[in-house]
Amino acid sequence: MDNLIFSFNVIMPIFLVIALGYFIKEIGLIDDRFINTAVKFNFRVGLATLLFENIYLSKLTSIINIKLMLFVFLCISGSVFLLWIIVPLFIKDKKRASAMIHTIYRGNFVLLGVPMGMYMLGKSHMGPISILLPIAIPTYNFFAVLVLAAFDERGDKNSLGSKIKYTLLEIVENPLIIASFLGIIFQLFSIKLPLFLERTVSDVASLGTPLALITLGAQLEFKSVRENLKYSLIATAGRLVVIPFIVVTLAFLLGFRKYDLGAVFILFSAPSAVSCYIMAKEMNSDYKLTGDVVILTTFFSMFTIFIGIFLLKSLSLF
């Protein structure tokens, strides 16, 4: 019973805040302009400050885990290449195939993973989550460009190099990457912020989690989900069941436990990233299918993550 209560207390606050975001958008309290502005602000300020604070307050020796970082990188890369081989065998439409690969391998680690880590691991144990963000974000973005450009039928394949170059530039300028390295530098050189700055950072960082969840809920649109139901359900199962089951099992067999295993679970059980839809629209993928998968994975992750947390707790793996 204790494990059920723990799992419920982790997952319900997250999805109630997401539901609040959806509700206030539906009643017209906020509009698309506000949502777009809030998303940009939170990405560049709220979440970046939260990430900096997590690393700044952690002991670097306790969060730098080369084995864990390498494992995550190889799992993301391996999932992309396996999907690249398997999906086109069954789906000949290149737009649809790229959407399936993209939504299955790429999780919403920033908007949902970080808040879930706060509730599941606790603020004092966010080190593994914080150190995986600078690994997951560039890897996700790089492979997104590679996959979508490779399956693009418009004939502008010669622009792949420029797309990759642009993506690398985006990674370098990414506020979360910058915040991570700033946090590491402050730790390495034992730079201590004055008390008034620490409190300012803490106040701004406290915006990151609730604002991320509210804007995630506000971006959900359920109207067109029926159009690609067969493919979107397959992608949803791949993202929420197959990928986390395989990766968490591998992590367990390689000896990861407690907070490291929890971080792996959070990263690979998160629903498909909202940014998948934006990239799909820009790079000639099936953006309607992509949007459907984002919606379905976000909804069903409430149940799959709950079950996953319960199983980890029941088996004393976390």
From TrEMBL:
Pfam families: Mem_trans
Top-rank lineage group of the source organism: Bacteria
Entry's Gene Ontology cellular component terms: plasma membrane
Transmembrane regions: 6-24, 70-91, 103-122, 128-151, 171-189, 232-255, 261-280, 292-312
Stretches of the chain forming a coiled coil according to its record: none
Family: Belongs to the auxin efflux carrier (TC 2.A.69) family.
Name the record gives this protein: Membrane transport protein
Naturally occurring in which organism (per UniProt): Clostridium luticellarii
Lineage: Bacteria, Bacillati, Bacillota, Clostridia, Eubacteriales
